[in-house]
Amino acid sequence: MATKVTGVTQGGPPNPAGGKTRRPFLVDLYGSAVGKKYIMAITGMVWLGYVFAHMVGNLKVYLGAEDFNHYAEFLRAGLLVPIVPEEGALWGMRVLLLVTLFFHILAAYQLTVMNRNARPERYQARREFVAADFAARTMRWTGVIVLLFLLFHIADLTLGWVNPAESGATPYEKLVASFRQPVVAAFYVLANLALGIHIYHGGWSLFQSMGWNNRKFNHWRRAFAIGFAVVVVGGNVTFPLAVQFGIVS
Ligand code: HEM
């Protein structure tokens, strides 16, 4: 199916020799804007799945400390055991998240550079270029905020480096200790709003990037993008707010 790309050039870099290059198919595909968009969409979908499952899992905090800690321990050591060794699934997931995050950011950066170097008039109408550029700019900023949030979040709840709880505290104690700090709670809420905008734009564009862009399908795309963003962010912001309002303590 033909893929329409807005705001970027299509095809790989020009071949100075003028003849056919024989690079492996995937490398050749990645060299093109379309290939980079595939990578953005596929890696984005991995993260969409993760943030959704992570939010649903974290709802266990409302069942109390014991259930939440039990769930955290299960994720850490017990997931898919005995099919994989203890902590195997945890490390598999970490590697998948890191690799997909790396390629998501790399492809985003390279597409931005391609976009900047492209002469818009040569490829498409000016209006389309401006629209694509605006969306890309929003994605860049919300993406940077989410990335900074993620670094803080891991230093806070996974590594405990910036967490006020004593060493050896349970995951539940760490979560409550972190969200008791108003500045941290506010940061979580703001970062999740940025995540919502990012998911909304990403959830919409991924269909375009994958070539699933039949017009009749557009209102479903929009509903999916809005629904996904609202559910994930809506769930996530309840956690710091619940601690701030003393519902979780
Ligand atoms: C307010 C919402 C959130 C809460 C309450 C929350 C809670 C947690 C907790 C408790 C952990 C530590 C698990 C452990 O080590 O035992 C964790 C880890 C993590 N969270 Fe979140 N999280 C939230 C939002 C997010 C978001 C929005 C993302 C992604 C953008 C995210 C990505 C991660 C990642 C990648 C880890 C590290 C997993 C690992 O490798 O151990 N979290 N989160």
UniProtKB/TrEMBL annotation:
Output the SUPFAM superfamilies linked to this UniProt entry.
Fumarate reductase respiratory complex transmembrane subunits (SSF81343)
| Segments for region (Disordered) | 1-20
| Gene Ontology cellular component list | membrane
The transmembrane residues are 38-57, 89-109, 141-162, 182-202, 223-247
Highest taxon of the source? Bacteria
**Listed Gene3D superfamilies:** Fumarate reductase/succinate dehydrogenase, transmembrane subunit
Alphabetically list the UniProt keywords: Membrane, Transmembrane, Transmembrane helix
Key word Protease present in the record? no
Instruction: Give yes or no: UniProt keyword Protein biosynthesis.
Output: no
Name recorded for this polypeptide: Succinate dehydrogenase
Protein source organism: Egicoccus halophilus
